[in-house]
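The pair is quoted verbatim below.
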Amino acid sequence: MPEVSPRAWAAVAQATGALGQLRQACASLPNPRLLIQPALIREALDTSALEGTYAALPEVLEARLPQTRPTSAEVLEIRAYERMANAAFEWVTERPLSVNMLCDLQGILAEGSRVPVKDAGQVRRHQVVIGPRDCTVREARYIPPPPDDRLTSGLEQWTRWINADSFLPGPLKAAVAHYQFESLHPFGDGNGRVGRLVATLQLLQSGDLKEPAITLSPWFLKRRTEYQDHLLRVSQTGEWDPWVEFFCLAICEQARRAVSVVDQLMDWLSESRAALNSRHWSGVVVQIVEDLIDWPMISMPFVAEKYGVSGPTAKSAVDRLVEVAILKQVSEGPYRRIFGATPVMDLVESL
């Protein structure tokens, strides 16, 4: 049990309350995916950016379309994170958080890596250091346990602790577990991305969240140095308060932001439905609008494939949505035209 001050406990209570508000907001949605996919895309972008992998939102959204190849190695890596997270959200309902599960997840992430990953899909068998790229041991900020019994034992204790019944509130347990995971650094690559994903999985398992609708990485990215320094400070001093308060503030602000985005997405969807109703449009054009929060960037071939309609029918539906400004063309060229619901894309950016 970490020793934390009354002030840190107050931060934990605030984070727990903010998660409760987000849980309520998600419960009010007719389809929880209205927030899950936007949250996942935003998290994929920023958790990757924290590790030096950058791409623009339109690039990643376009790469999700069938028969579209990623435009860069960075997009390929971010898409691998999405696949890993989707697998984790499915597995966490059936499997406990375990070393084997985390190895499976890291293996998915490693498949999209720009460079070969040592010991992909398994606990590392080589020494790693934390610091500037290609730094020596002397230059490292922190040196995780060597790949021997100390790492194995640490991981076993970590998994027992996070899976044990506990009276600790979910945000506090997730904060402590995140520090412990990052200090162990069990993989050759992807520890930050896997570790931040685990925090969301813990909040799902604790019941603080019913849907993976929170994005912590955008908040950490804006405070990258503070984030790294807080983790290091726990190792240097053994003091938990600053890190717990920092982590809980991230939960509070991002949960409240997500609630606001839910409201704005619902307003946009209501206005879009009204625009269709006023013109008495029905059929595939309505189906597209209902799915635009999940797929805010589309093409005519995508519409034809997804909804099982002909090319002319897909073109007619997209043209109608452009006519009422629900969609706008976001890529050039007459043959491979891509259209986006820019208000939805802007809201994803704001998560």
Remarks:
- The mean pLDDT is 93.
- The domain at 6-260 is CATH 1.10.3290.10 (Fic-like fold).
- Strands lie at 297-299, 328-329, 338-340.
